[in-house]
Amino acid sequence: MKRINREPQTICAVSTPHGVGGISVIRVSGPKSLKIVKGLSDFLPEDVESHRAYYGTLRALDNTEDLDEVIVTYFKKGHSFTGEETLEISCHGSPQICQKILKHLILAGASAAERGEFTYRAFMNGRVDLVQAESVLALIESESDNASRMALRQLKGHLSTKIESIENSVTWLMAHIEAGIDFSTEGLDLVSGKIVSDKLLEISRELSSLVESYHSGRALKDGIRVALAGRPNVGKSSLLNLLLEDDRAIVTSIAGTTRDVISGDTHYSGIKFTFLDTAGIRSQTSDEVEQIGILKSREAHEEADVLLFVYDISEGLKPEDVEILRQLPKRTLFLVGNKVDLVAGAVEIRAILEQLSSVPGFENLTQQEDFIKRNLFFISALDQNTRPTILNEISVGFSVANIQDGVLLSNSRHFENLSKALSNINHCRELLGIGMGSEFLAVDLKEALIAIQETLGKRFDDQVMDRVFKEFCLGK
Length: 476
Ligand SMILES: Nc1nc2c(ncn2[C@@H]2O[C@H](COP(=O)(O)OP(=O)(O)OP(=O)(O)O)[C@@H](O)[C@H]2O)c(=O)[nH]1
Ligand SMILES: [Mg+2]
Hints:
Blueprint: E1 11-14, E2 21-29, H1 33-38, E3 52-59, E4 66-75, E5 86-93, H2 95-107, E6 111-112, H3 117-124, H4 130-141, H5 145-155, H6 158-178, H7 190-222, E7 224-230, H8 236-244, E8 262-268, E9 271-277, H9 288-303, E10 306-312, H10 319-327, E11 332-338, H11 349-356, H12 369-375, E12 376-378, H13 386-397, H14 412-433, H15 438-456, H16 462-469
Parallel strand pairs: 1-6, 7-9, 7-10, 10-11, 11-12
Antiparallel strand pairs: 1-2, 2-5, 3-4, 4-5, 8-9
């Protein structure tokens, strides 16, 4: 896709979803858009007003047929989404009508837009930066309340402002360093040295808080993937059905019921959760289907953000349970003692903790009050109250409930770039700490600055652009 240095053509595409609907909107953007649309609509006045809608009948270019009754809205150059002269044609929501209108627009001199080309033009014309352009896509694709709220905040520039302020600090430092402050010589300028070191610390803190927010941001954007793991018959599928509020998986008292990975989505307090139920893991099975199921289980565990390790509390934690636990990948882990309704009297937490102490990573569990309080559950998959308890505790782990100013990273490209900038800044701090000269510090600062500017799209190459915009759908 060649985008850079291309003559700005006038482009057109249907911007509403493909298919039948009440109305569809066709967007036309570029220097000739008004002239082209006027060629099909004799109802438009000589002096068209910006941001005004005009009603009339769109006619074929050769005037031989009516295309549709439409409303045309005009946005003058500099006052549209793309920054170019733009017209939006609202027509009846039929794919045939849309195709016909597009055909005549193209005959009149427009060309068909590529994926994301409207947003790309908005970026090239400085209407949005790259982070905002990407948030347009995130907003369209958002699957939960919180995801769309976060994308809207990014589109409004909250994240860009934050990244820009970090960019300014780095630029300020570079300017000082280039002005020739040399910390390595004798007669060290302490004041300046202290200022520089404070500033570096501040930048490092700001970058790391953004980088760390990716954990929550990604969870908000893509949802949280939770896999259920455990021995056969402990109640994983029962728990899945309860969490999804749907009888998705077969539940029987026969060990080895679930063979395949069964997944489903659910929403809770504005967050999307994807749950994966897996085959119960046991070593002594000669059943080929079950063995394949167990392999698939392990793959699902690898892909998950969170693992719910389920065991049967009425039987206590068995050596087989402990063995499965040992083999689970390192993830946020919840230990779910199910079938608590079958336990007569109180649950013996001490006994559980003792058995867990042989599992690497759980040796000192008795001292980890927080983990015991938050990550150990004693529940029944037959009890409706279990659902909110579990979903709530998982969301707390992603600190999505206490997002303060809502500035979060949720895009892997931003995360990669800013992580790189952070490691440059931290390296710079180390160099400063051992008294290296300004020319060494400048190298790291420069690298950090490039990574930050690439995030915002102030520096870019065609490959990055293609990667970003090819994700878009036509018409955006
Ligand atoms: N009393 C009681 N029974 C439960 C509970 N949860 C599940 N069961 C029963 O335990 C049996 C096994 O449940 P499943 O959900 O199929 O267990 P699973 O872990 O998916 O088993 P596999 O698919 O074989 O790995 C069924 O008879 C369920 O009705 C619970 O909380 N209390
Ligand atoms: Mg099952």
